[in-house]
Write a structure and sequence with these properties.
By secondary structure, the protein is mainly alpha-helical. The termini are far apart. Among the domains are: 183-283, Tetratricopeptide repeat domain (Serine Threonine Protein Phosphatase 5, Tetratricopeptide repeat, Alpha Horseshoe); 292-382. The protein is elongated, with a radius of gyration of 42 Å. The longest helix has 69 residues, at 2-70. The chain contains 18 helices and no strands.
Length: 386
């Protein structure tokens, strides 16, 4: 009996020890878990502090770089942006501004390497596309340049997107002028004009660009829109007069040029163009309404002017090519008078055909005409094919 009791006591003691051990294990696990959490929080906190310090240092160097970039201190800006990148190697803004600083130093190959990498990450970035377009233009790679310019026009811009796109298109137009691609420049100008607001200066600028592209119809339309708001701007009046002049719309040109000279009497070019325009309107024998007698007087005047032009060109190199015209003029000279024109109405057109031929040929042989000869040449162009 004593043995059995002893065994029972031993078993009870063992069970009590096991229960005590089992009770201590959850406490240890809980303590370890708490310690792990505390350690994780501490490490996370330290990591955040470290990254915050890194970010602050990067931003500090980046801010310095921006100031030097704006001040065109490119060498210092490059060094500062590179230091900023040590703290944030993949920072998009840091790399983009580093590329800008490298461009400022004419280190375009290095800049291009950064920009191509940035383009791969964000092909819709407007500034990246614009800088790549400029670099391609410097390398005379027209196809790539046009591609990037068009990307930039339709890309994403951080601020006023419409203004940025308009500026890029204007830069593209200037580039097209620089490579003498007036046809493509006209297409871009038409797209530009379609998105202009009511600002008269914008329409005037578009008109100037159309004028450079020798698209006088669109130029005149843009000047007209500008003058609807600001009717007395001398430069726009002069440009509108020139566009109308180039189109052969001499009555309209005369009005614009007269207003331009009135607004700015020192505008010698407009004054000279106005004088020529007035001569064209006065000397054209085919204009309407006009009496028969007045038409005859204009034909006689034009015939005499052409004869003098032949005489002035007689000593010029290549005058031999004018011999046939001189003989025809001499043959007709006795007929081109009031009595001869009355007797033979067809002589009006015959005489003027000879006058126009003389002015065209002498222009090619003796150089650009002036005064009445220039007016007759312009009248000839007006009536070509009639």
């Amino acid at each position: 009996m004593a043995t059995e009791k002893s065994q029972a006591d031993t078993l009870a003691a063992q069970e009590g020890g096991a229960q005590s051990s089992l009770g201590r294990k959850p406490a240890r696990l809980a303590l370890l878990l708490i310690l792990a959490i505390v350690f994780f929080v501490a490490v996370s906190g330290l990591s955040r502090v470290y990254h915050a310090q890194q970010e602050a240092l990067g931003n500090r160097w980046f801010t310095r770089g921006i100031a030097d970039l704006k001040g065109q201190r490119f060498e210092r800006a490059v060094s500062e942006f590179r230091t900023a990148l040590l703290y944030s190697r993949d920072n998009y803004a840091y790399q983009l501004d580093l590329a800008e600083a490298l461009i400022g130093l004419k280190r375009t190959n290095e800049a291009e390497a950064y920009l191509v990498n940035l383009w791969d990450r964000e092909p819709e970035n407007g500034l990246v596309n614009l800088e790549l377009a400029r670099i391609a233009a410097q390398k005379h790679d027209t196809e790539q340049s046009l591609r990037y310019y068009h990307n930039a026009i339709y890309a994403i811009w951080p601020s006023d997107q419409e203004a940025e796109r308009q500026n890029v298109r204007l830069e593209l137009i200037e580039y097209l002028f620089s490579i003498n691609d007036k046809t493509q420049a006209q297409s871009e100008l038409i797209a530009l004009a379609a998105n202009l607001g009511d600002d008269p200066s914008q329409h005037a600028r578009a008109g100037d660009l159309f004028l450079r592209a020798q698209d006088y119809d669109h130029a005149l339309a843009e000047y007209h829109l500008s003058l609807k708001v600001d009717r007395q701007e001398p430069a726009v009046l002069a440009a509108a007069g020139r566009a109308a002049f180039e189109l052969g719309r001499y009555e309209l040109a005369h009005r614009y040029l007269q207003d331009a000279v009135t607004a700015d009497p020192s505008d010698a070019q407009s004054a000279a163009r106005l004088k020529t325009t007035a001569l064209v309107l006065q000397m054209d024998p085919f204009r309407r309404p006009i009496s028969v007698a007045e038409r005859h007087q204009l034909v006689i005047q034009a015939f005499a002017v052409a004869g003098q032009r032949l005489l002035d060109c007689s000593t010029h190199d290549g005058a031999a090519s004018l011999r046939d015209l001189s003989e025809k003029w001499s043959t007709m000279k006795g007929q081109v008078n009031e009595w001869g024109l009355q007797r033979n109405p067809d002589l009006v057109e015959t005489s003027m055909d000879l006058v126009f031929s003389i002015e065209r040929q002498t222009s090619a042989t003796c150089g650009a005409p002036t005064g009445e000869d220039l007016a007759l040449l312009l009248i000839a162009k007006m009536h070509e094919g009639n």
